[in-house]
Q: What sequence folds into this?
């Protein structure tokens, strides 16, 4: 019997090394405005010695839209913290020292955080933000730090260790902050808005494409969150957003009838496709 030499394997430790502390990632349509943004980051303390600056050049054509482009950033960025931001922001007020204090506060409060923004919403008619817009007026609402269900896209800080990604079945340039917060929640992480004051030159544009993406996002998560029957090689279960239905339908008697329903539904769907 042939004796094989030992195979070398690399052991994985619990500690993750990051070549950079921050990755600042931007979709660029206006190179001059982007350079102005970069200079403001450096003045605010984001030194290239521990920061990497990544961009996608959309100045001549849309090389990537936001969902696919930001997924590239989330995959390739080497920073401990990934900042996804618009090219039209300027760090004219709070600096890196302030941001790191905010990160430390959230880390102490909730180690399961994955997203930090400067604007978002806690729930219905409950927004929270600290931001100056193009007119230079400082606007504030709510009481940061606050756990939120969505963040505005002008400035989003993501913890690399959370391994987040945007939906592969959505596209465009709107509501990706909301999508990212939903994905984080599904994975067991939380999102927060903190008091980090910067200048955002524009107020956003809720055009037709915005409402088209909103429609697609609603459709996507209506499918994703729909009750479903799941069978594995070892067991079967019903998953539902209703705790009552989940408990009821996962009894042995009900599981039998649920399974019959889904078997019948599968056959009808298959027949419809064949026809």
A:
């Amino acid at each position: 019997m042939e004796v094989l030499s030992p195979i070398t394997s690399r052991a994985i430790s619990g500690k993750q090394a990051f070549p950079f502390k921050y990755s600042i990632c931007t979709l660029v349509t206006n190179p001059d405005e982007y350079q102005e943004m970069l200079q403001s980051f450096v003045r605010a303390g984001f030194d290239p010695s521990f920061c990497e600056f990544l961009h996608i050049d959309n100045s001549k054509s849309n090389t990537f839209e936001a969902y696919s482009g930001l997924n590239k950033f989330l995959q390739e960025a080497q920073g401990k913290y990934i900042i996804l931001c618009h090219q039209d922001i300027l760090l004219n007020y709070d600096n890196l020292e302030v941001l790191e204090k905010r990160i430390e506060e959230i880390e102490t409060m909730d180690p399961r955080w994955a997203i930090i923004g400067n604007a978002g919403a806690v729930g219905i008619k409950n927004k929270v933000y600290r931001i100056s817009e193009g007119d230079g007026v400082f606007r504030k609402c709510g009481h940061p730090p606050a756990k939120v269900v969505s963040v505005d896209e002008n400035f989003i800080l993501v913890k690399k260790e959370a391994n987040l990604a945007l939906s592969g079945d959505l596209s465009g340039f709107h509501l990706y902050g909301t999508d990212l917060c939903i994905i984080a929640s599904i994975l067991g992480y939380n999102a927060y808005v903190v008091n980090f004051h910067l200048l955002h030159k524009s107020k956003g544009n809720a055009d037709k494409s915005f409402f088209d993406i909103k429609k697609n996002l609603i459709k996507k998560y209506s499918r994703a969150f729909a009750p479903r029957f799941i069978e594995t090689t070892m067991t079967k279960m019903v998953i539902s957003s209703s705790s009552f239905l989940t408990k009821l339908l996962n009894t042995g008697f009900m599981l039998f009838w649920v399974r019959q329903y889904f078997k019948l539904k599968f056959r009808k769907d298959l027949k419809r496709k064949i026809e």
Q: What stands out?
A: The mean pLDDT is 90. The chain has two domains: 20-222, 228-274. Residues 14 and 68 are 30 Å apart (CA to CA).
